[in-house]
Amino acid sequence: MTGGYGGSILRINLTDKKVVKEPTPDDLIRDYIGARGFIIRTLFKELAPGTDPLGPDAKFIMAAGPLTGLFVPSSGKIQTGGKSPLTGGYGEANSGGHFPEELKLAGYDMIILDGQSEKPCYIVIDDDEVKIEDAGELWGKGSFAVEETLKKNLGEDFQIASIGPAGEKLVKIACITHDFGRQAGRTGLGAVLGSKKVKAICLRGTKAIPVHDLEGLMKVGRRMYEQCFTNPAFELWQTYGTSAVVNWANRIGAFPTRNFRGGYFEQFTNISGPRMRKDIVVINKACYSCAMCCGKYSHAKTDKYDVYVEGPEYETTAMIGGDCALGNIKDVAYGNHLCDDYGIDTISGGSIIAFAIECFEKGIITEKDTGGLVLKFGDPESVFSLIKMIAMREGIGDVLAEGSKAAAEHFGADSIKFAMQVKGLEQSGYESRRAPAMLLSYMTSDIGAQHRPSWAVTHDIATGRDSAEGKAGKVIELQHTRPLFDTLGVCRLPWIEMQVPVADYAEAYRKATGIDYSEQDLISISERIWNLTRMFWVREVPGFGRASDIPPARVYEEKLTGGSTDGGILEREKIEAMLDDYYNLRGWTNDGIPTEQKLKELGLDWVNLP
């Protein structure tokens, strides 16, 4: 067996309760490395075109990478994937905590669920033993209560991934919660699990992960950790985590405010990292093998609520704080708690709520639509009420639960122009009208408007914030490098924030697996994976192409207000020119479709063009 891998794939059919364990194929390892590579290859090969993402034939996949659970910094990462019920295209979410390494310790590289259970159930995986148990008493409960109950019943050494009521009700921004606050948040995969009537997956592993060269891996691992410990930003990162980004994003005018009308929130100091640390943080919290401790376990207490929550991290603060104009860190934390417990993505949730408030301001929806609720920016009750209504599909929440794109199509009145999404996925927390490379990153991300595959704001600052020329090459470089970490099963933050070189990860891969891939070999496979995810969109979404990559009209029709980017706008002509450059450099057609030559070059000649 190849070192670094659990060695097996676990398949569970929920219709007939059939459980199959099979070896992880050598060609899958060789050509797709792990995690997100395994997911897209499995979806493309095994999912019939046009499959309903919430139907019995849909697949729900969790996959680790070859470095997951090993002695390298922040190796507690897992990818969750499937066809997105929110977008209809490739769906993927990344999460940390302690579930990822447990999967490897149980001997698995991937779990694949298909079929649908007739009754609510939960799955217990204890090394080689797999059980499907009745979840009737858990159905309807929040994620925190479910995890607490299952740990009490099974033991603290079991790791739990569960859905809240939103997943049960097939809310299309539903997420999967683990470790009392870690989320597989994006693209609505919690609804896929809910459609299968799976309330939770419980996992315990007691095996060893095989390693090709243990001494060599320990050597490079120590070097990588030392790079973290000696980095000047290490102490700052441990103190504030991602909340440190709040002040910086406001300073550069990239903090989304009032549904992306502006990039500066006047109350940012009240929701900043220092204020959060002072007012609500109890202790630092880390994922498996992580020295950076970006997680913050917090206690938010007022006369209206008293809750504990992990976070809020930057994206949640940006979308529930700035985008909804909540200027109190305790309110942001409480909104975070509600989203986590009900089981909805805080990025999409915050964005959809901000969109709904603007629709209310403009008279597109009224108190008649909201059940008498007056929606206002900066009003905590507007935010808290809509979170609950979306999660439970109550009233107007039933419309908003379909996502901002679908809601805008329902409301009409040109609201689609300020529904801040691309390909149906709500944009995450960076205003980009004066950051062309970042905007192009959102436009071309392979799951929709998400920052993870390419965070290019600093490149815009370094090379000119009003210039769109030459930005495409950097975006492509990032889209191959950053998703590589998701493929290997590690967090990218040690690379970004602590400057641990990619070459060290390539060396760790060689020591762990015995496969003699260079850094460039790994990047090339990452490019293969990227093109395959693009072809999944082409296959699954009728008419998919260039128009699918265009951002909402607000970006090129409305100027930013407030802060250092006041008056900023990115003209449609520049957007189109960036796409031309991007497609050309990628070897795609002018409509954004990989060419036959490009697919052949990447070893994807088995993929049929439309």
What does this structure look like?
With 610 residues, the chain is an alpha+beta fold. It folds into three domains: 8-204, 4-Layer Sandwich (Aldehyde Ferredoxin Oxidoreductase,  A, domain 1); 234-419, Aldehyde Ferredoxin Oxidoreductase Protein, subunit A, domain 2, CATH 1.10.569; 431-498 and 518-601, Orthogonal Bundle (Aldehyde Ferredoxin Oxidoreductase Protein, subunit A, domain 3). It contains 26 helices and 17 strands. The strands form four sheets. The protein has a six-stranded mixed sheet. A six-stranded mixed sheet has the order 8-7-12-9-10-11, with helices on both faces. Strand 4 and strand 5 form a beta hairpin. Helix 13 packs across helix 15. The longest helix is centred in the last third of the chain and has 22 residues, at 519-540. It is globular, with a radius of gyration of 22 Å.
